[in-house]
Amino acid sequence: MPKDTSIRSVLIIGSGPIIIGQACEFDYSGSQAALSLKEEGIEVSIINSNPATIMTDKVIGDHVYLWPLTVDSIEQILQERKIDAVLPTMGGQTALNLCIEASERGIWEKYGVKVIGVDVAAIEKTENREAFRQLMVDIGVGVATSKIANSFLEGKEAAQEIGYPLVIRPSYTLGGYGGGFVHKKEEFDQALKRGLEASPTHEVLVEQAVLGWKEYELELLRDSNDNVIIICSIENFDPMGIHTGDSITVAPAMTLSDRCYQDMRNQAIRMMRAIGNFAGGCNVQFSVNPDNDEIIAIEINPRVSRSSALASKATGYPIAKIAAKLAIGYNLDELENQITKTTSAYFEPTLDYVIVKVPRWNFDKFKGANMELGLQMKSVGEVMAIGRTFIEALQKACQSLEISRAGLGADGKHKRNIDEIMYGLEHASWNRLFLIKDAMSMGVPLESIRKVTRIDKWFLSQIQELVQLETELKRYSLNNIPKDFFFTLKQKGFSDIQIAYLLGNVTEDEVYERRKSLGIKRVYKMVDTCAAEFAAKTPYYYSTFEEENESLPSDKKKVIVLGSGPNRIGQGIEFDYSCVHGLLAAKETGFEAIMINCNPETVSTDFNMADKLYFEPVFWEHVREIIELENPVGVIVQLGGQTALKMAEKLHENGIKIIGTSYNDMDVAEDRGRFSDLLKELDIPYPKYGVAENAEEAIVVANEVGYPVLVRPSYVLGGQGMSIVINDEDLEKAVVKLLGDLPGNRVLIDHFLDRAEETESDSISDGEDVHIVGLMEHIEPAGIHSGDSSAVLPPFSLSEKVMNDMETYSKKIARALNVIGLLNIQFAVKDEKVYVIEANPRASRTVPFIAKAYDVPYINIAAKVMLGVNKLKDFTIERKLKGYAIKEPVFSFNKFPEVTKELGPEMKSTGEAIRFIKDTEDPYFRKLIKDKSMYLSK
């Protein structure tokens, strides 16, 4: 049927700050849904407290409410404007829980608001573990033996009845929070207590643990005519026992028999139809016994999920966009396939390539954390790679991770201790994939690895083939590798730098030139949803090694924007926000905007955001060949965080134009020695410092500048490896650790200004004029990483002199660094004297916060300045903030209860929220002022 014309205004509930278990996949889904509804002439209002997302930008919604995610906030919006319907399926568990609470309080009924995309009864059935289990039994879908428990006594009785091993699953939680496996009786009491406390309803499911079984997911869509299609099948590389968010996943499913797949498909459709009569998206998780193909249902989520974003990017089928249209009444056969433009949305995607998702962890930020993976999700981001084969995609994913790996091994970073390797195989952590390869390289039999890991033999045999190819490669020198064999290596995902390592005594560039001379180069294939059965209209590409290239460069002037890779602590969604605005600015000013990124959760990798999308690793070899194919006028590196900035040197060395601030000027800001020399020349105060290459030099420097000192490596983001030390002994330990973790780096030793205030400025420069975007005052003192500190805009207690000095120094530095675009500067203020701590000529995490607080499109302006299309004088910049805006960091310490929550120079927050305050008399603000006074007096 056509759309419901009674729906003229929709409220979309967002997911709030980024936390482990609920990340920017909901920013992507919410943004896509909002744009989909606006296409239909529907007025879209959005509530979300996250300033770093593109979802809370005016380019997405008609009305954006950066308010706390509470029922009271929702009711205020309903009082303020006429809302016909609410869409709660795009904001993860946060939105679903809010929808239930509002329903229980009668809010939807009171204001005549229709819940679309799901119904409250469906949420209840899927989130309440006992209701879900009983429903599955009623419709004939297998489930693990389980019992519900609302008390300690009921839990103990359930455990006794079912037997060990067990799994405890709390109701109404996300990312496996509060859940866990119990292998023996002695562990049960503590695990049960944790689960009951984690559940908002004090309810857990005590369930048979099907450890070692295979895990699968299906992504479904249903319309109001009860038509259901399967968008994608996803197989977990890791067996049951590891949260799917922490598991390597593969699409389409690789080791699933057709009979088992058809059975699973039928069960998923039956499950979706059983939970309620609604139109929208759904994610279903199954477990399969590898011995007999017995299927049991794990859970069903009547909303978009992390896997929905992955499935959308994997297939090119925009699940959230179509789900939003289904929610307002359309049927699948009434909507067009967004890729082909000729087939309908009722056409199930077919893949002629393989997708691999690999999670990204940040255990280095949580010293002493339990790094073993289990039911509770611990990863902070993920990468996706596309290849013609599983192993090609897997190698590309490893290159995308931003952990200095050149692929799956063959890069000199392998482990050699067999006991350490075998322990790591049995106790899965972030590096188990690499340890599997290391074990095979050391001769451990495949069957032994399978028994320990319970990973399917097919996947292991694929990795073993890499080991065999490496052995064969070592027989050759660069000049006598047969062309066919060289071609095979590239088809198996080997990077040039891996081949150089295996050959020895040759460089990456030499390998590159040799294969070019043999005519072996990347070609690009289109993601078309239909295995090339129909012509695709959408320019969305991945690379491989074959004959035909489907990416034909236009003769337009082009700009490439480098993305930020996987989310991690210190580099999050704020850089994707910046990249999206960079793409929009390029398109608005007549450039063909090309995006390179590998993060499936982001809006920048939506296939209709750029003029051309390359879903590829932000890894030099891949970037280089795209540039050679497209021949852009330049590359934007300022917007993609440290990932993109690290590419600047390679671009500079190869004569590729960097748009905006030059490589040399960025390097001055990054190189502490050169930057301090510049500050000295400009007569700008800075803490005494020195540079050391070993512990002995560091002690000499520290005694010259005076303790306490701040110790850090150069060229890092998010305060990685930073620490404050007060004596020679602690300094020696810190330096040895730093150089062990980051070999070849230099150590910076700064005098630490104890009990100093920390402040920041953000500015835009066009090379002549400098506009101060915003000055911020931190609540926490210098020594707490700026990303972990509450920041207030504008400053509330800084003197006129201090603010004038901050502005003066910002403008001096911008001009001295020849900044074209963005500049963030951090200051320490002590006794009314302003010291410059560091300058970052790039987008920073504070820019989206300032843009939202002042309601000004700063990144868009900066991008147009970078592109040389506009000068600052072309813009009228009007700030609309009344009162104060506060950036509040949000942490995920609940995932690591064994870790200290103490903050320091190394960033630990996973996200942020924004709060608006009218004046300093607000109780919340008065508490902040009191906190600041306390911190500075300690």
Automatic annotation (TrEMBL):
Name the reaction it catalyses: hydrogencarbonate + L-glutamine + 2 ATP + H2O = carbamoyl phosphate + L-glutamate + 2 ADP + phosphate + 2 H(+); hydrogencarbonate + NH4(+) + 2 ATP = carbamoyl phosphate + 2 ADP + phosphate + 2 H(+)
Domain of life assignment: Bacteria
Q: Which Pfam families match?
A: CPSase_L_D1, CPSase_L_D2, CPSase_L_D3
Gene Ontology cellular-component terms listed: cytoplasm
Q: In which pathway does it act?
A: Amino-acid biosynthesis; L-arginine biosynthesis; carbamoyl phosphate from bicarbonate: step 1/1; Pyrimidine metabolism; UMP biosynthesis via de novo pathway; (S)-dihydroorotate from bicarbonate: step 1/3
Q: Which cofactor does it need?
A: Mn(2+)
Mind telling me which Gene3D superfamilies this protein's record contains? Answer: 3.40.50.20, ATP-grasp fold, A domain, ATP-grasp fold, B domain, Carbamoyl-phosphate synthetase, large subunit oligomerisation domain
The ATP-grasp domain, residue ranges: 133-328, 676-867
Q: Name one GO biological process term.
A: pyrimidine nucleotide biosynthetic process
Q: Does the keyword DNA-binding apply?
A: no
UniProt KW Manganese keyword: yes
In the record, what terms sit under GO molecular function?
Answer: ATP binding; carbamoyl-phosphate synthase (ammonia) activity; carbamoyl-phosphate synthase (glutamine-hydrolyzing) activity; metal ion binding
Report keywords, A-Z. Answer: Amino-acid biosynthesis, Arginine biosynthesis, ATP-binding, Ligase, Magnesium, Manganese, Metal-binding, Nucleotide-binding, Pyrimidine biosynthesis, Repeat
SMART domains per the UniProt record, alphabetical: CPSase_L_D3
InterPro entries according to UniProt? ATP-grasp, ATP_grasp_subdomain_1, CarbamoylP_synth_lsu_oligo_sf, CPAse_ATP-bd, CPSase_dom, CPSase_lsu, CPSase_lsu_oligo, CPSase_preATP-grasp
Checking PANTHER family in the record gives: CARBAMOYL-PHOSPHATE SYNTHASE [AMMONIA], MITOCHONDRIAL (PTHR11405:SF53), CARBAMOYLTRANSFERASE FAMILY MEMBER (PTHR11405)
Known function: Large subunit of the glutamine-dependent carbamoyl phosphate synthetase (CPSase). CPSase catalyzes the formation of carbamoyl phosphate from the ammonia moiety of glutamine, carbonate, and phosphate donated by ATP, constituting the first step of 2 biosynthetic pathways, one leading to arginine and/or urea and the other to pyrimidine nucleotides.
Q: Which family does it belong to?
A: Belongs to the CarB family.
Subunit description = Composed of two chains; the small (or glutamine) chain promotes the hydrolysis of glutamine to ammonia, which is used by the large (or ammonia) chain to synthesize carbamoyl phosphate. Tetramer of heterodimers (alpha,beta)4.
Q: What is this protein called?
A: Carbamoyl-phosphate synthase, large subunit
